[in-house]
Structure formats: C-alpha cells, structure tokens
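Suppose you are handed a protein chain with no further information: no name, no annotation, nothing but its sequence. What can you learn? This example shows the usual starting point.
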Amino acid sequence: MKELLAPKLKAKPPKSGTGFGNAASNKAYDPAVQMAKEQAKVVRKEGVIRIDSAISHETADNLRGHILEQQQIAAIETDRDVSSSRMYYGVENRRKSRCDLQLSLLRGGFSAYLGNEIDFELSYKKPFTVADALQEMLGKDGSLRHLYENLVTPNGELYELAAVITDPGSNRQMVHPDLPYNSKAPLYVIFLALQDVTENMGPTSFLLRTHTSKANVVFNSGDADEKEQLLLKSDCRLSTLKKGDAVLFDARLLHCGNANDEATRVLFNFSFRNPEVKGSLGYKGSIRPGYEGAMSLGDMTNALNAYHVGGDENPFANYVA
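A reasonable first move is to predict its three-dimensional structure. Written in structure tokens, the prediction is:
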C-alpha cells in the first residue's frame, strides 16, 4: 500500500499590480494564506492532506506524556465511579486496547476538576502542553490556522477534542466514513502523531476521493460486489506519520484504523464543523460535554493569542468543561 505523503505545493504569488492597500488586501497575499488555499484545494479534491511538522518534536513529546497521565487518571476515576465514563471517554468508549480520551483545556487537565491541589499547583510549573500544541497549529502563525479558516471560516465550531489511543492488540477497524453523507463537507478532522507511527502500529488507511456522492451511493447500496469493487479499486494510502506530522481529512472520506501489533500509538484528535451545514451531523464527536457547541475556531485563536501574547496562563478557564 502506498504511503500518504505531503503534497509539494507552492503559494501562488499575487497578480501583477495588486497586493497594496489596506490590511485585508495585504493578508490576502500573505504566503501562508496562499499556501492554505492550495492545501484546501487538495482536501476538497482528495478528501485528505498530510501536513509534515505541524508541531515541534518537543511539544509532541510533552503532549504525549500529558495524555498518558490523563489516561491513568481517567482509568482510576471511572473504576471508582462507572457513571463518570461519559466525562472521560468518547466514541471509542474503552473498547479493548483502544479509547478516545476526551481532553480538558484547563491547565492541569483533569486535576483541575478533581480537587487535587498539589497536582494542580505543580501544573503551573510544567508546560501547558495542550495549549502549546494548539498554539503551534491554530495560533497567530499556526501551521493549520489558515487552512482551517479556509475550510470552515472562523465561525467553525470546535466539534471534537480528544486523544485516540491504541495499544498492541487493537484490531483493525472496518472501512467507514465518520458520519452520514452530506452534499457539503460537514466536518474536518485532525489526527496528529505524537510519536512516529510505523506500519505495525495501526496507522489509518485513507481511500482517496471516496468523500463523493458517487462513492457514497456505492458504499451504501447494499450490493456487496459493488462495494467490494469500490474498496479494491480505490486509491488507498497509509498514514505512517513521523512525530509531529498531521493528517486533516473530510469526515465523509472512507478510512479505517489498522491493527496495532507493536506499541502504544497516541494521536491528538480535534475537528471543526462547517457552519454552512445545519442540524445534526448524525455523529457525536469525542469532546467533554461542557465544550459541546461552546467554542468556534475564532474563539480558539483569540484564547491562544491571550495565552501566547497576553500571558494568560489559563486561557480556556471561562469554558466549563
């Protein structure tokens, strides 16, 4: 199977005689904005794009360590009270060797809710890894900010915020889209690798260009032979990522996680919803209940700016998680 590679793109230069004037026109010819336009074209055509070095290795290491600590806390709390499971786990709710761990945007993570003052105070002496990672991707000069603004506008709703964790023994998923078909792309999802993801660690396979109406009709036709031919003939790519690399994909695209036979794989996972698509998406994202419908991409970037530039040490504290 071919590897999913980052496309070689070039930002188109402004047309001759343009690019001068007000701030809005200057932004329009920002190379990062132009590159995002080219990336968005790939996403709309192929259904997925790989972005290398979306965050630094140091931030990836710090975030991975934080997530695994949060997983331990979640396991202790849900063993103590099974009814609290919804607060910690999402779509993949503690299935064998796999879970979607819903993350907190508060400094200190779950410790901020649980009254562990010692852990909470210590958190101010550690990097705020979730905010640091989001800053590198969605902050002022973030690697994904302009791409997301192109796809969902600053009004796009934060729909998922979690970590996908698989351990050795995790089985291969069935090929699937994340949600029912819609003529407009409802949701754009990020998987960010927090360690190198080898072929034996269950990387996600993406079937390029299967986010279309035509592919959806065949996939859901009930005709097993037609469906098999669709899967066999599709251009399938394997997302064997390096630490800090990301894939962004249209949630309508057919994909599947493969079996993990090697080592724990941790992916940072978030998504933003297209504001043009109204009503239920037919898919409940993995996000802590208090964040549901509470934050847009613009809200996120404003909070990150307050954190990075304004010195706000807990920029998401106003959001009840």
